[in-house]
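Contributing new records

If you add data, match the layout below exactly. Sequence lines come first and carry their own label; structure lines follow with theirs. Keep one chain per record. Anything else will be rejected by the validation script.
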Amino acid sequence: MLLSMTGYGRATNNWEDKTILVEVRSLNSKYTDLRLRCSQNLREKEAQLRKMVTDFAHRGKLEMSIDITSHLGDDQFGLNVPLFKKYFSALSELSTEFDYEDKTLMSAILRLPNVAASSDGEMSKEEWKAITDTISAALEKFQAFREQEGAATANDLTERVNTISGLLEQVSPHEQDRVEAIRDRLYRSLDDKMGKDRIDESRYEQEVLFYLEKMDINEEKMRLAQHCEYFLEVLNNKTQAKGRKLSFISQEIGREINTLGAKAYSSNIQRLVVGMKDELEKIKEQTANIV
């Protein structure tokens, strides 16, 4: 099973006179990073909330919001009256001292820290359970979204890796042609410089063997085929977090493709290598968004 790093889940729950709304979303990221938005009375539970989400999501740039709304609307606002009076008294004295009249003083004080805030009160065990149940429901929908995206990505990756394997199989028919081409090129070069009568056949064969060793791509072909096979094996295993491993394997695939291109000495093989590189770039883009 493959999981996309991009996901979204939303769940609501009516508990007593309150509505609990939880939203979870994620984007691709190399690391796990959670931005949590919740009411003040949930801050003491922040460590548990973070662990609950990050353990489930594994990796990605995550954001979770928890909104709790009262149907009665009578517990959503609190005013710190003593603090408000202190601010008002001090600022009024300064206004008089500087002969400055400010009609927005009241609203300005309300924006100061700790003056106005939601009066959430203490949380009961029952309310905490209702909240965690809602989070679990949102995470299940979040997971379903990522599984759906991951399945489409897995199909695309399988097709592209198989395309690379198919292009690799097309390399072999062109190998003998490039051997003959290098023989002809070396012979013409010696003929131009020395003339046919002065060509040392023994030295000529040594030069051909030297170039053939440099041109040998059997190891690259074998390793590339193995990497493609291993990529599909990891892609289809039951592990959820496999994005990093697939990224590492794609780097190894790229290394063998580059070496194959450098040792090709054949325009036909080079065209096949270009096709492999094009597929590999699309594979890298996809693996960057896998958990």
